[in-house]
Specification:
Layout lengths: L1 H42 L6 H22 L15 H32 L12 H30 L1
């Protein structure tokens, strides 16, 4: 179990660190949006590039925060059916759903990587390259996949007990 716990600790630390980057961008996003609203309201002149920067910051916050949300079990779950299952049946259902999630995230990572390395366009106003944000899908998805792997290993371990 030492290796598994070490693997878990490294992945969890990486997930939190990457999420911290996204959390760091939340305040500048709020300040920039507030400045744009005030500029529109009082000066009748929006701040140029605010929409593009907001889109990029939001993509970073969401894509880099998905794995941490999985880590703390913050994703929405519906348990009106599974709460009636036995502990063993719940474990089996959890393993199946985790495997399905890993499959979907694998496709997301693969396509995010393919799209990211082939992307050549830039944004309209600020001329920001699009490829780093496309690659964020692969990076955030990889961390999410690793979090699912940890959940899968934990579920299998619980089912064996």
């Amino acid at each position: 179990m030492g290796r598994l716990e070490g693997f878990q600790r490294v992945i969890r630390r990486a997930t939190y660190s990457v999420c911290a980057v996204g959390m760091f961008l939340a305040i500048p996003l709020m300040l920039m949006t507030t400045g744009d609203v005030l500029s529109r309201s009082f000066l009748n002149k929006p701040l140029p590039g605010t929409l593009e920067l907001s889109e990029y910051m939001l993509s970073i916050i969401i894509l880099l925060g998905a794995a941490y949300t999985q880590q703390v079990k913050g994703h929405v779950g519906v348990d009106f059916l599974t709460k009636r299952f036995t502990k063993k049946t719940k474990g089996v259902v959890e393993i199946i759903t985790t495997l399905l999630c890993m499959f979907i995230v694998t496709i997301m990572v693969w396509q995010g990587f393919v799209e990211g390395i082939h992307e050549k366009t830039v944004s309209d106003m600020l001329r920001v390259p699009q490829w780093p944000f496309r690659l964020l899908v692969a990076i955030g998805g990889s961390l999410l996949w690793l979090e699912f792997m940890i959940d899968l290993l934990n579920s299998i371990s619980e089912l064996r007990k």
